[in-house]
Specification:
two-stranded antiparallel sheet; 284 residues; alpha/beta
């Protein structure tokens, strides 16, 4: 979910990200990873944005990853193959503080091949920058702030002043989920109004995903009451998805209509890895 939120923000607020990373508010549009595929690309945390002159390649990482240098070199060559005339700017953004030397690595070298890329450690970034742009509000708590709770309080006030209700809702929901990396759920719930977040496309995505999984499971069981049971499973799946996104128990209960005790009973399921959908095979 964190990967999805980061991608959503970078694609929806590309000018804000360009202002921060490139120092210029360039209008950027998304490049589909499939356009670069020689082999399937790992697209969960990869974002490619383009203008007529530049391509911005962003990788969000919550943890140190030893494969990042090779991946950046690999993507750089793919980008060159497809767009040989464009300037390429590559950056890895680490979200969670780490003592690992891996978060300082900025080059890949093998034989005579040497490739350099940029790294941003979010916890070293000035908080003020992230309070200037709506698309960066959700990351403010993860920056170099002495008081994350106060930073979230300030961001919450700025979110309240966003006049476009859809933008306001999306930014609020994104802030709630990303802030869960640094703050506990009760603080987030206290400072961000849940009724704003319910209108966000992020919440709707969680909702639809849960409904689809629950209904499919109910139908697969082939019971007469499958539809009703599927709806119940859908509600539980929505709650589980929200739990995996670090939303508070009270907030989940409010969104889904489940009781707090029902939500708490789902904790063990939420702690299990999410199941991958089974591919259906045509019968001979």
């Amino acid at each position: 979910m964190i990967d999805n939120i980061c991608k959503f923000l970078a694609e929806s607020f590309s000018r804000d990200f360009a202002s921060w990373i490139l120092g210029e508010a360039i209008a950027l549009t998304k490049i589909e990873p499939s356009e670069l595929s020689v082999e399937p690309i790992r697209a969960d945390s990869v974002i490619f944005l383009e203008s007529t002159k530049i391509i911005l390649h962003i990788e969000f990482q919550t943890e140190a990853n030893q494969n990042i240098p090779f991946r950046m070199a690999d993507y750089r060559l793919r980008l060159y193959r497809k767009f040989p005339e464009r300037q390429i700017h590559q950056v890895v953004i680490y979200l969670t503080p780490s003592q690992s030397p891996l978060v300082h690595e900025t080059n890949f070298s093998i034989g005579k091949l040497n490739h350099e890329f940029n790294v941003i450690r979010l916890w070293e970034q000035p908080t003020e920058i992230f309070q200037q742009y709506q698309g960066l509000f959700p990351f403010a708590v993860l920056t170099k702030t002495e008081n994350p709770t106060e930073t979230l309080r300030q961001v919450a006030k700025q979110i309240e002043n966003i006049t476009d209700k859809q933008v306001q809702s999306n930014v609020a929901a994104s802030t709630a989920i990303i802030s869960g990396i640094a703050l506990n759920k009760e603080i987030i719930q206290r400072l961000l109004r849940s009724e704003i977040m319910k209108e966000s496309v992020i919440y709707q995505e969680i909702l639809l995903e849960g409904k689809a999984e629950g209904k499919a499971e109910g139908k697969a069981e082939g019971k007469a009451e499958g539809e009703a049971e599927g709806l119940a499973k859908a509600t539980k799946q929505i709650a589980i998805n929200m739990m995996r996104s670090n939303m508070s128990m009270d907030l989940i209960a409010q969104f889904t209509g489940l009781s707090l005790k029902q939500v708490q009973k789902l904790q063990k399921l939420a702690a299990q890895p999410a199941k991958k959908p089974k591919s259906s095979k045509a019968k001979a």
